[in-house]
Amino acid sequence: MLFNSISFLLFLPIVFAMYWLVNKRSLLLQNGLLLLASYFFYSCWDWRFLFLLIFSTLLDYYSGLKIFNANSQKSKTFWLWISISINLGFLAVFKYYDFFVESFAQVLQKLGFQSHFSTLNFILPVGISFYTFHGLSYVIDIYKNRISPEKNIIHYSLFVTYFPLLVAGPIERATHLLPQIKKERVFNYNQAVEGLKQIVWGLFKKVVVADNCAFFVNQIFENAANHSTTELWLGMFLFSFQIYGDFSGYSDIALGTSKLFGIDLLKNFNFPYFSRDIADFWRRWHISLSSWFRDYVYIPLGGSKGNKVQQLRNVFIIFLISGFWHGANWTFIFWGFLHAMLFIPLLIFNKNRASLLNDKLNLKAYAKIIGTFVLVSFAWVFFRADSIIEAFHYLHDMFDVNDLHGNYFYKNTKYTLLSAICFFAITVLLFTEWKNIKQQRQEIKLSKYFVLFLLLLLFCMGSYRDQTSFIYFQF
């Protein structure tokens, strides 16, 4: 069930109405309703994987209790690794097994050996990378004595499977979400209105910005050899806006939807394309994932402690794992490697927190913002390409000064119209976010007139274009 689908448009108000009708009866009943709605929401993708989700939930629930009640450190460690091993084992089988088998077979073939490994060709369960990390953080926090286990199975199950965040985040923490689930909630009109506004803003990012950019991006990247230098540059920049509009749009819809139920989720984006360096970018992009890796991988490895060699090692590990988390392809690993290489100079010269010290907007700041955006866009080419070789060919052709025309966009009225829509939509996106970041607001604040304007655009674009899935659903 897509957030930008008619089925979700019917599903959400029904659940919303039932949720607040049972509010005065019982908190447990209210959470039980949300849990059933979340299971239904997930089963709309493929009901068979609902059993995997429930098993993962029960595993971490039981492991958390066993860790907390263990009589020895050895027993605590045993149950921690039971949870980690099984969870990561499922992730490895469903998401990475075929990748490792095919990569190993290719290495053997290049060495002159014949390989007869078979792949599993499993369908990737939607959201498995997200709900796996929910459960792992919960179990690790209990092991570290940061939290006590949740004894109510309904409360805990809702924490893992809460439908606004179930398939593409944000990746929540038990310390933030569970207390809200266990607390009695009262309908707040202003919070609900803000939630609706954020949903509209998220739909604008997805339907008007991302989907229109995707039209050109798909054609350019899938047939890059037949496009000019100008068009390749444009394709790169349009993908930057596509993936941001797509993923941050999903996050806005998720956060806005959750506000309708009186629950606040973690903010996942903070105007990342206004970052002044790569370190700043990762403090603003997919915040819940980068903070998860920081707290559960980077800091346990030693973080920024130790000598420079150890710090560099930790940075490479965290970026490579982050890239690999996104998908079973060498392109994602290389994308993570590129970001590590861009981050390293900041770390060596102790500039990785420089953007926190100076918030003035001057010519130098604008130059840094533009430069960071261009570097991030170059890295996105590897994220979008089907292979590393294709990505390098794409980048190579971008610098062919003998092929600078842009005839592709003037072939017919349809392309010209869509080009204008893309330019207009991106302008609205950047202007709105720039206005908000300058006013130092933490949430998107939209006037009722601007909301009506966005709704009109959504109606027009919705009648023109078919619904498309969100990019991060594949992760």
Task: Give a description of the structure.
Helix 4 (73-110) packs antiparallel against helix 5, helix 8 runs antiparallel to helix 9 and helix 15 (363-384) crosses helix 16. Helices cover 70% and strands 0% of the residues. The chain has 475 residues and is an all-alpha fold.
List the helices and strands and how they pair.
Elements: H1 6-21, H2 27-46, H3 50-69, H4 73-110, H5 128-143, H6 153-161, H7 174-182, H8 189-222, H9 229-260, H10 278-284, H11 287-301, H12 308-326, H13 330-348, H14 354-357, H15 363-384, H16 388-397, H17 413-438, H18 448-464
Helix pairs in contact: 1-2, 2-6, 3-4, 3-5, 3-6, 4-5, 6-7, 8-9, 8-17, 8-18, 9-15, 11-12, 12-13, 13-15, 15-16
Q: What proportion of the residues is helical, as a percent range?
A: over 70%
Count all strands and give the number: 0
User: Span from first to last CA?
Assistant: 16 Å
The unreliable regions are none
Strand content: under 5%
What is the count of DSSP helices, taking H or I runs of 4+ residues?
18
- Compressed to H and E, one letter per element, the order equals HHHHHHHHHHHHHHHHHH
Major pleated sheet: none
Query: Which overall shape is indicated by the principal axes computed on the Cα atoms?
Result: globular
Radius of gyration: 23 Å
- Estimated structural class: mainly alpha
Instruction: Determine the mean pLDDT.
Output: 85
